[in-house]
Design brief:
Arp2/3 complex 21 kDa subunit ARPC3, 73% helix, mainly alpha, two-stranded antiparallel sheet, 2 strands
């Protein structure tokens, strides 16, 4: 191997063409869900529930943290009324899914049952630990409203309100991941 080829090999782009395509497709699908108005307002909060997380969790998991950032931007940019809170939650959530999938669920791909259980736990963790708390933080920081109450009161309200969406997303994405052949479940980064 020559010195020139070694140097060129170290200058890989942040995203491959395939990662860009997959991130654009999944992020675009998440954006389309929001733009089409396929959202349901969560009563008593400025937040909506919708099926976009199906696209954000799978897409970011496959494309990695950098692809997750792209998907997070597309998933959050058009959030009705609270785009900054949504961007915060979805960008960090995309990074989370990229790292966790490759280092947890995918590492167990030799045992598909175990891998799928870890996938379901990843999605639940995404909701409980990342996206909902960061939505609350973003709303409190960027759109302060005394009617939301304290951070923990608002967090409790929102965590309880998204349980149906979390169950739906976890179920649908687990079925999708179970049905996909291994080569399509392989992380692209």
């Amino acid at each position: 191997m020559s010195v020139t080829s070694r140097v060129e090999g170290e200058n890989r782009p942040l995203l491959s063409a395939r990662q860009v395509g997959v991130a654009a497709a999944f992020g675009g699908a998440a954006l389309a869900v929001v733009l089409a108005g396929l959202t349901i307002p969560i009563p008593g909060t400025p937040v909506v529930t919708d099926p976009r997380e199906i696209f954000t969790t799978i897409g970011a998991s496959l494309t990695g943290p950098i692809g997750g950032i792209v998907i997070g931007i597309l998933a959050g940019i058009a959030e009705p009324g609270i785009p900054l809170a949504s961007l915060l939650a979805h960008i960090v959530g995309g990074i989370y899914n990229g790292f966790v999938y490759k280092n947890l669920s995918w590492r167990s791909n030799e045992n598909k049952g175990r891998s799928l259980v870890l996938w379901a736990l990843q999605v639940i963790g995404y909701y409980v630990l990342i996206v909902v708390p960061l939505f609350v933080l973003g709303v409190m920081m960027f759109y302060p409203d005394p009617s939301n109450g304290t951070f923990f009161a608002f967090l409790t309200t929102l965590e309880a309100a998204v349980i149906p969406e979390m169950i739906f997303t976890t179920t649908v994405t687990t079925i999708i991941m179970a049905a996909l052949p291994e080569r399509y479940r392989r992380p692209l980064w």
